[in-house]
Amino acid sequence: MFIKKPSVRASYEYLVEKILKDGEDMITEDGQKCREIRNTVIEITNPKLKSISPKYPLGKKAVEQYTNNLLYGNSGEGRFVYDYYERIREYPSYDKSLKNDQIEYVINKLNTNPESRRCIISLWNPYIDQKVKDVPCLNHIGFQKSGNYLYMSVLFRSNDILLAFHSNAVGLISLGEYVAEKTNSTLKSYTHFIYNAHIYVDRDADYIKKYFPDCLNYL
Questions:
Q1: What SS3 class is residue 74?
Q2: What would the pLDDT profile of 76-114 be if each residue is shown by its tens digit?
Q3: 177: number of Cβ within 10 Å
Q4: What is the C-alpha separation between 175 and 186, in angstroms, rounded?
Q5: Which of 52, 104, 152, 172 is at a distance of 20 to 30 A from 122, taking alpha carbons?
Q6: How far apart are CA 122 and CA 86, in angstroms?
Q7: What is the Cα–Cα distance from 38 to 44, expressed in whole angstroms?
């Protein structure tokens, strides 16, 4: 499924309704009921529009906290289960004493070779993630530059659309704007690929009833 919208807010509202209406029901390996759509692409054409949907259950504060954790690290109150900052800025190497700052690599590569197709950030670590329960949903971030424009793409293996997508996308766009600032460019578009886009229809039934009451007849 391909969605092209000007903002995260518009994409979020459309995608929640689309999944609830047309998604397939499944039971996760943790035993929770989801409604899912596979292989979804969302293109945000005006990423600077970062208003928060009034239908997003966790609200503006959650988006701001997520963005702060993504850009500056996850510490203190308001910790999230998945801390992407470490994988992006301090990716573990074979030598545990060394940390790889992938954002600095991307910035340096774009500034020295703006035509490069190697401006890639990887978050999945098979030496860790094949052995543990809580693994990153975000697996890949890529940047390409054309003239003074920066194009950003991300890949999620799995994305909770009702509660996570809004914060994910706005936070990652802020990361893209940081890269754009450091490479003398403007973030032109943001593309969000998802292997499995889903909503926990039993766990989050009260949220659906409150924020998307028109979709209750789909359940």
A1: coil
A2: 554 555 578 888 998 876 666 677 899 999 999 999 999
A3: 19
A4: 12
A5: 52
A6: 11
A7: 19
> Between 102-112 and 166-182, two packed helices, what is the crossing angle to 10 degrees?
50
Around Cβ 167, how many Cβ atoms within 10 Å? 25
- Determine how β-strand 2-5 pairs with β-strand 33-44: parallel
Amino acid present at 201: V
The structural domains of the chain, with segments of one domain joined by +, span 2-218
The count of C-alpha atoms lying within 13 angstroms of the C-alpha of 126, restricted to the half-sphere facing its C-beta, is: 0
Question: Which string of DSSP letters, residue by residue, matches 108-173?
Answer: HHHHH-TT-S--EEE---HHHHTT-SS--SEEEEEEEEETTEEEEEEEES-EEIIIIIHHHHHHHH
**What is the C-alpha to C-alpha distance for residues 30 and 169, in angstroms, rounded to an integer?**
25
- Gap between the Cα atoms of 88 and 57, Å rounded: 27
On the 0-12 / 13-18 / 19+ scale of CB atoms within 10 A, 130 is: exposed
Strand duo 33-44 + 138-146: pairing: unpaired
Active-site positions read 137
The yes/no answer on whether domain 2-218 falls in CATH 3.30.572.10 is yes
What's the sign of the alpha-carbon dihedral 164, 100, 152, 142? negative
User: In terms of C-beta distances under 8 Å and separation of at least 24 residues, what long-range contacts does 139-144 make, across chains too?
Assistant: 141/88, 141/172, 141/175, 143/106, 143/110, 143/119, 143/176, 143/179, 144/117, 144/119
* CA distance linking residue 101 with residue 82, whole number of Å: 18
